[in-house]
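Case study 2.
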Amino acid sequence: MTINRYRLKHLAKKNHPGAARTQKLLNNPDRLIGLILLGNNFVNILASSVATLIALRLYGEPGIAFATLLLTAIILIFAEVTPKTFATIKPQSLAFFAACIYTPLLKIFYPLVWVINLIANTLLLALGIRNQPNNEMQLDTEELKSIVSEANTALPERYKKMLLGILDLESASVEDIMTPRNEINGIDLDDPIKTIIKQIRTSPSSRLPVFKKSIDNVIGIIHLKTIIAHTYSHDFCLKTISKNLTKPYFIPNTTPLHAQIHNFKNEKLELALVVDEYGDVQGLVTQYDLLHELISEITAKPMEVILNKDGSRQVDGSITIRELNRITTWSLPTEGPKTLNGLIIDFMETIPEPGTSLRLHGHTIEIIKRDENLITQVKFLSKN
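Prediction:
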């Protein structure tokens, strides 16, 4: 009963004979338990009867008490504690061996076991309990996350983070990973032509949104590969940009990440603008952002979280709550603000000054640096 069912299933698929027999027995646990308890109780009762007879013949009635104590100790040590402790330590080897014995015994005593189970199931039915296959072995997302997190040496740390990132896709939306509105790098057609040319030549992004005055007035997306050569021509102008624009792609800020992966694939696009319920642009998300979510240990900023010698952590204020939770295995709330800076401001309802200390969801933190209206560095002192 304590054997790893997933390892058992894996071995059974590889045609391991012991695993196949064990899995077949565990597919009908009521029959297996009925057989085990039938044999267990039969042996215990038989041993008690024999011990009583021997005690009466050797010592008379006073010997019954001695036989009871002795038999209790023997059964407890040699038939209960020792074998069951061994079973919890080495469940697989013992289960495969036991399956060789239980399989033929179940066939021999099947009629008796069937009657016992029928009576037991009838009693359970009278109590309103149906003996049906349960889904106890089916894990939800949070349980899978716990298994992956506790894999320890069985799974390299980098792969563990990737798997956790994949499992997080179901519960996260594009709002959690998007580049916020104020950080969007785009081309404003109202800027001087020299500024636009410099922006095109030096942009680290391959695609940029093109707008007039405000990011809410996006007129298209420009692929820099198709236009960068034109910037060296003396007749380059805004019309050149307009001719090479593609239609902008808008998505709601509540779009789940796993759905957006399919959307990018189906639409054959690499960039989408995230809008709220009023149609205002809130941010920008790319295929790279989704890739970063899956392999964050490769693409994450190296200075986002620094573990100090005294056990405290120095954290970048712009880090997302989900990323911080993943790195530290904490459980800071992700339903509201998406960044650490936003979480602190929302909690305090003001922008704290450097040196301010507060208690945030069980963590004692200190504000280290602030840049105008943004918290840039935070130190987590402890967690009780």
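The longest strand covers residues 214-223.
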